[in-house]
Amino acid sequence: MNQSVAGADKTPIKMLHDRILCEVDSEAGERRSSGGIVIPATAAMGGRRLAWSRVVAVGPHARAVEAGDKVLYDPAEKAEVEVSGETYVVMRERDVHAVAAQRLADEAAGLYL
């Protein structure tokens, strides 16, 4: 599924090849531990922490990801771009670790968000 996004000057933007465009999670800052302690975004975590993001647009060669899906990726390996004052993440489909979408329910993965 090929999607496009309108830029600041309202010129359509088409994703190419296997690239995907994702919204940056505005709630990716502070988190709460299971005990209720607030953990700031700047706190160092042991190891890498993956993040979820919603897909806005996909290139024509992306096979497993569609617009509207949630994807799991490594934020340390992301490229950010600003379009119409909003920040997005651009990545290759191969950089996605997992896909969460209602359309996958028929495949019975066994895990649910």
Distance between the termini: 23 Å
Helical amount among residues, as a percent range?
under 10%
Strand order of the largest sheet: 8-9-3-6-7-10
Counted up, domains total 1
Number of helices: 0
CATH superfamily: GroES chaperonin
- Reported CATH architecture: Roll
Classify the beta-strand content into a percent band: 35-45%
Give the secondary structure arrangement, pairings included.
Layout: E1 4-6, E2 12-14, E3 19-23, E4 31-32, E5 38-39, E6 51-58, E7 70-73, E8 79-83, E9 86-92, E10 96-100
Antiparallel strand pairs: 1-2, 3-6, 3-9, 4-5, 6-7, 7-10, 8-9
Written account of the structure:
The structure is a single chain. 0% of the residues lie in helices and 39% in strands. It is mainly beta. It has a single domain (4-26, 48-107), classed as Roll (10 Kd Chaperonin, Protein Cpn10, Chain O). A hairpin with a 5-residue loop joins strand 1 and strand 2 (12-14). The radius of gyration is 15 Å and the shape is globular.
Key words describing this protein structure:
single chain, 113 residues, mainly beta, 10 Kd Chaperonin, Protein Cpn10, Chain O, six-stranded antiparallel beta sheet, two-stranded antiparallel ribbon, 0% helix
